Every structure is written in C-alpha cells, then in structure tokens.
UniProtKB/TrEMBL annotation:
Coiled coil location: none
Chain positions covered by the region annotation Disordered: 138-197
Cofactors (names): (R)-lipoate
Family of the protein in this entry: Belongs to the 2-oxoacid dehydrogenase family.
Gene Ontology molecular function, alphabetical: dihydrolipoyllysine-residue succinyltransferase activity
EC number(s) per entry: 2.3.1.61
Residues of the Lipoyl-binding domain: 70-144
Pfam families referenced in this protein's UniProt entry, alphabetically: 2-oxoacid_dh, Biotin_lipoyl
GO cellular component: a single term: mitochondrial matrix
Protein name: Dihydrolipoyllysine-residue succinyltransferase component of 2-oxoglutarate dehydrogenase complex, mitochondrial
GO terms, biological process: L-lysine catabolic process to acetyl-CoA via saccharopine; tricarboxylic acid cycle
Species: Hippocampus comes
Ranges of Pro residues composition bias in the record: 166-181
Biased composition (Low complexity): 149-165
C-alpha cells in the first residue's frame, strides 16, 4: 500500500514538471513571436506565473528622442474687435530659437501681438511673407524641435576632408627688401590694373544680410550731393490712427475752449511732499495725477461731458463711471491706454497705474483690453514743450483735454504783476452734445481743483 502511494506521488510530480516545462516553452515561443512581429517591443519584459498556464507580458515605454519633430505654429487668437494683422518677422529660416523667444510680431489696428516660440529648435520654413496679412489661426512658420541647427552639425563634416588634406609646403623665405632709393622715380603714365571683384563672397550671403555702405562725404567745392527720397510703408497702427482722426473730423462738430492754470500751488505741494510720497508709495509724484483726478471730479459735476451719442439709435448714453484714456507716444504711433474707475482712486493709485501702463507701452506689451473703452481722454503735449494746441476728439468719446507746457509768465495777482508758472489748457468737445456752458464750466472746475487741491477735500 505504501509503495502504491509513493508511485502515485512520483507520477503526479512528473506530470506537474511536464506542465511547467510546457508553460516555459509557450512563454519563450510567445516572446519570440512578439519580438519578430513587433520590433518596438523587443525590450519588453515577459513574465510567466508558474502557478498558471497563461503567460503575462509587461510593457515598458522606452524613451524616444523627438528631435526630428516639426511643429506648425499658428497665429494666436485676436480680440473681438481685431480681425487681421500684418506680420513682421524677427527671425529667418535656419535661425535657432530658444523657448519663449519672439519669432515674429503681428501689428494690428490697436496694438502689436508678439508670437513666441513654444519650444527650442530651428525655424525650417516661414509660411507667411514679411508684411503679409494673417487672421487668427493662420499657420505662421514651422519649427523643428531641438537645441541646435542641422546646418551647424553638417559644417564639421564638410570641413573634415579639407582638414585631412595635406597642407602645401610653406613658401621659401623671401630675400630682404632692397634699401630705399634716394633717387626720384618717374611718375607712371598708365593706371595700374584693377583686380577683379570676387563674386563668390557676395553669392554666399543673402541679400538681406549685406549692409549698404555709408555714402561718401561730399567734396568741399565739388558737385552738390544727390537729392534722394525714401518710401516707408505705413504700419497698421498708423493707418488706423489716421482713419479714426479723420472720422472724428467728419462726424463730430468739434469746438475748442481754452483757459490758463496757475501751477504755483500744485508745484509747491509736489516740491514739499515728493520725497515722502516716494518713500511711502515707491512712485514719484507728478502733475498728471492731479489733472486725472481733477478731470474725474469735473466729469462727475458735468456728466454730459462724460456721455456719448449713439448714432445708431439716436440716443445719449450717460455713464456713471469714469474711465480716462491717457495718450502715450510710442515709436509706432500714439496709443491711449485706459485708467479705469478713476472716481475711486487717489493720487498714489493713479500714479502707479500711469507708470504701469506707460511701461507696457514702451515695451510694446499693451493688450487690446488695455485700450478698449474710455469715457474721456487727456493728452499731455507739454512733455514735448508744446505751449498751445487744439486736440482732436478720440471717438467715440465726446471731449478731450489738452495739457501744455509750464512757462513763467507775468500775470496780474491782486492788482499786482507777478511772475507765475502758467499752463494753457484746451478742451475740445462735440458741440452736438455738449454746449458751451457745460464745456466752460467743466474747464473752470479743472482749473479750480488744480490751482487749489483743497477743493477736492471740501467737495466744492
């Protein structure tokens, strides 16, 4: 009986061993088949469970270099009021760019939109010519991802055979030059031959990379210099500014009223508190904040100046908020970023906002949202030395205040002639909506607030 049990145990053990061997064979055959059919899975790990007749395959994603991947960069979406723009390229085909580096700039009617590179790589193709018009979503250029240019990698290979070639033997040492002759040599009667101009150097560079040489200085007493002209295409911003100004002249019945402001008190206040103001608010105290705050105060007193005519419905739209546009001159043209809700700001808030918007304008970072809206505009020509002028309304607004330079002039004060720092101010308004009484009252309110800022505290 015992021997029968041992025989039975041996038979069971042999059967289990055969099953395990069969599973191993199946596992190896399955792995070989997978490796043959799917080369990318050659490095995959195949595991077998000795307690099961089903083999398991564990997949691992191997790292892949995407250096050959080519991306197509498209035009970013514009604001609702902007439909198209002109492309101005900062880079060319073959240039290596880093991530977030500006590749091109799209000039729209209101601002410029910068298009950065989404990754480091090489520009392989420009899909839009320089100056071409694009809309939102238009393909701009193709970028090959990677840190180096393919041309740079091919350059060492091309230079390798040249380096391997044997160098020519050095020329024999030349004899020492003869001593200079003291006798006078005869003057040559023929011109020496002119060496030919090499053309291969010019052909090796694109036309855009060859800089023109500076013109020679005119010879004194010789012929007059040539009278030349140059043509430069107007950018979209300048075209839009010209169009809006002409529309304002054609639409509005513009009339301008003037006044003068004695800047003595505001200058004394600025001189007394500018250091303390700078220490507390980390911003300089200027005259612009006083005029912005005075304009908000006058607009609340004369709400019709803050209103606008809706030509489509023939209605007057009154606004209970004050958003003042401040004209800022940039190399590309005049922009008018908006200071919103001025009625709730103090001098420090206004100065900080003006400084922030001015910095964005100088760095060409103004967005369309920064210039949309605005119920009133202030233009400060005094920073350029202007003494007198009539500003043009910024549509669809109804009025604009023009500031000018501060000059010492003799004025009558309490029956005496005194020298005071004076500024001329001008208010241009749409006479279809604003009458002369409201315009003059508005300008006198600004004059009273700037000449004596205590009027703001007393609400007079």
């Amino acid at each position: 009986m015992l021997s029968s049990s041992r025989c039975l145990s041996r038979n069971i053990g042999r059967s289990l061993s055969a099953i395990r061997q069969g599973n191993n064979v199946l596992t190896r055959r399955g792995a070989a088949a997978i490796s043959t059919s799917y080369p990318f899975a050659a490095k995959n790990t195949i595991k077998s469970d000795p307690r099961s007749s089903v083999f398991q395959i564990q997949y691992f994603r191997t790292s892949v270099a995407y250096r050959d991947e080519v991306l197509t960069i498209k035009t970013p979406a514009f604001a609702e009021s902007v439909t198209e723009g002109d492309v101005r390229w900062e880079k060319a085909v073959g240039d290596t760019v880093s991530e977030d580096e500006v590749v091109c700039e799209i000039e729209t009617d209101k601002t410029s939109v910068q298009v950065p590179s989404p990754a480091a790589g090489v520009i392989v193709e420009l899909l839009v010519p320089d100056g071409g018009k694009v809309e939102g979503g238009t393909p701009l250029f193709k970028l090959q991802k990677g840190s180096g240019a393919p041309q740079a990698a091919a350059a060492p290979k091309a230079e390798a055979p040249a380096a391997a070639a044997p160098s020519p033997p050095p020329p024999p040492a030349s004899a020492p030059p003869p001593p200079p002759s003291t006798a006078f040599e005869p003057i040559p009667t023929t011109m020496p031959p002119v060496p030919p101009v090499p053309t291969h150097a010019m052909d090796a560079k694109p036309v855009s990379s060859i800089k023109p040489t500076a013109p020679a200085a005119p010879v004194v007493g010789g012929a007059k210099a040539a009278r030349t002209e140059s043509r430069v295409k107007m950018n979209r911003m300048r075209l839009r500014i010209a169009q809006r100004l002409k529309e304002a002249q054609n639409t509005c019945a513009m009339l301008t009223t003037f006044n003068e402001i004695d800047m003595s008190n505001i200058s004394e206040m600025r001189k007394s508190y500018k250091d303390a103001f700078l220490k507390k608010h980390n911003i300089k105290l200027g005259f612009m904040s006083a005029f912005v705050k005075a304009s908000a105060y006058a607009l609340s007193d004369q709400p019709v100046v803050n209103a606008v005519i809706d030509d489509t419905t023939k209605e007057i739209v009154y606004r209970d908020y004050v958003d003042i546009s401040v004209a800022v001159a940039t190399p590309k043209g005049l922009v008018v970023p908006v200071i919103r809700n001025v009625e709730g700001m103090n001098f420090a808030d206004i100065e900080k906002t003006i400084n922030m918007l001015g910095e964005k304008a100088r760095n060409n970072e103004l967005a369309v949202e920064d210039m949309d809206g605005g119920t009133f505009t202030i233009s400060n020509g005094g920073v350029f030395g202007s003494m007198f002028g009539t500003p043009i309304i910024n549509p669809p607004q109804s009025a604009i205040l023009g500031m000018h330079g501060i000059f010492d002039r003799p004025v009558a004060v309490a029956g005496k002639v005194e020298i005071r720092p004076m500024m001329y101010v001008a208010l241009t308004y749409d006479h279809r909506l604003v009458d002369g009484r409201e315009a003059v009252t508005f300008l006198r309110k600004i004059k009273s607030v700037v000449e004596d800022p205590r009027v703001l505290l007393l609400d007079m």
